[in-house]
Structures
1.
Amino acid sequence: MSDEELLQWVAGAPALVDPYLLLALDGFVDAGSVGATAGMFLRHRWRTELAATLDGDAFIDYRARRPRAVIDNGVLNRVEMPALELFAGTVDGADHDVLLLLGPEPDMRWGAFFRTVEQLCQATGVAGVITLGAYPAAMPHTRPVRIMRAVNAAGTSLIPGAEDVAGYSGPVGAATALQAHLNEIGVPSVGLWAEVPHYISGSPNPAGALAMVRVLAEAFGVIVDTTELEAAAILHREQVDEAVAEHAEAAEMIAAFERHLDEGEEHEQIPSGEDIAAEIERFLRTQGE
């Protein structure tokens, strides 16, 4: 299958005003599903519509990301396949319209995926690309979520409000690798990551998604109603506080994080807390159920 056939428009490329493309891939690296949650939230808040789909057979390993079946009273109603979908919309009051590419991180054929994104950028006149994600960090849940950024050489003016990643050398996901490709063709791009407390990074983190949405709203110069995310973040904070209260070691670990941040106690060893993290994650899953 040629690269041109990997992108299927619903009704041709939409006519948009200087759009930004937001890319939120569920996978590596998106701790707490922050990027996926923020992308889905803005998809509905900005009332975007499906504009195109990417060929799932070309990019997704269905053995790693199993399709989901819906069966009622012995009848197979449907099978829901993992999908990479492109949504488009107009952001009221903003100078830029928006495109959102949502779905699982491609398992294969990254080069073809990069060229497909390049194709849709050219077809819609994309002004810049913003990727959304999150990573586990030695941060306590009692402090505001930080949004970090890393730009390609063409995108130094994007998202001035986020903090720069000081340094990193290690594995990356498809979104970060895409940034390098976009730089080669002169498309500005910035990667945004929320810092999610490592001891709760395995469960959805609405506080991280809320922080991400607020940074994006500021970038677009608009106000976004985040009431639902705020309520979810408050409930999540209460649940984590309750879980921590039941584990003295967890309280001590979080106090160490706070001292490290507030007093700059660089000499203090930051605990990994893997066993405590497992207990808290188990508690949160129970609360969610």
2.
Amino acid sequence: MTEPGVAEVAAPASPWAAWARHVLEMVVMMMAGMMVLSVPVAAIAGALGHPSFSAEMPLLATVLMAAEMAVPMALWMAYRGHPRRSLVEMSGVMLAPAAVLVAAASAGLTSQEAAAGLYHPAMLVLMVGYMLLRRREYAGHA
């Protein structure tokens, strides 16, 4: 029984529903991080004379965007009670595609713009794959 005025949160109908809800929560946190943290990043870039740094420096913008998403996602995972190992692993899963794409663009294997454009799809595929590998953990943190 809950205290008066405290809403109960309905448990998901199945472990897969809990897992899917967790994926959605993490995507929402990543989007919020991009929206909130991109404001000071853009202000700093503008103050340094690069008002359109994402167009001028797409690789740097990609790395910063990865960090803008990883930080709030890790904070959310900590709030949800995940062990530190999981926070570090998921942060690595989110940052690794940026590192690989920056390296590929720096080596001339792709353009900087293409690398920046590939980051989100690559990161989402890896994130969902990681969460599938650890589905018991992600389905168990309601």
3.
Amino acid sequence: MLDRVAQFYADRLTVPVLRYLAERGFPETFVRQRRIGYAPISSSRDLLVREIRAMTKSNGIQLLQQAIEAGLVVRDKAGAVRDFFASETSGYILFPNMVHGRVVDLQGRTYPTPSRRSGYLNRPVPIHHLYNAGDAGQRSLILCEGIPDTLSVLVAGLKDTGACGLYGTGGWQPAWLPLFRRAGRVYVALDRDATDRAIALARTFGTRGRVLIPPQDLGPKGDLNDWLRVGAKGDPAAFRSILERALAMSPTPWALQI
């Protein structure tokens, strides 16, 4: 169901959304490869529900209940159903989380962006996966605060260094630590205003841990995507060079504490 729904929303990418993502440093070929989609603003809030009902009629499988169990469709107290990623005031850019090519989760980010800081929307079910968890098995990797930050590292194409993403600053789960057992170096890269948390998380990895801090000129909330967009002017090759230098100089969490 997650796979089907991810494709449903990927087919609804619009030119303004692709332009916005390109401005964030993600070219269209990369966006299509990562199966990023868009849930448009909808007054009816049932675009996905209607699609699922059409699929049910064609193949005889009751898919609506599966979508409800997956948190992709919600039912109100009156029994009416609507799309979870639907709003009358804002759409959502949807980032699929894939494991071995299969979608295991979807996270939404509001677009158009509201006046306040960008809001994220997770399905109303427990989170069991890191974003891009397959890279946790690499010898060197960057553990990022969110999905756009992780995508920023991936689009840079660092040699022999992967990237995984938390669902926010407090999204780490100790049960994930064994995923990193082969990693010889783990660079924790949270936003500038979360340096204390980055230090604490880097210490979790013992002598393997390092802290990667975005530069001060990106502001107090500067993150990896800002670094790509502003520091590297959206150029993946330039960002790759910047990251390579920054990784080489990343301090240990104990050095930062001192």
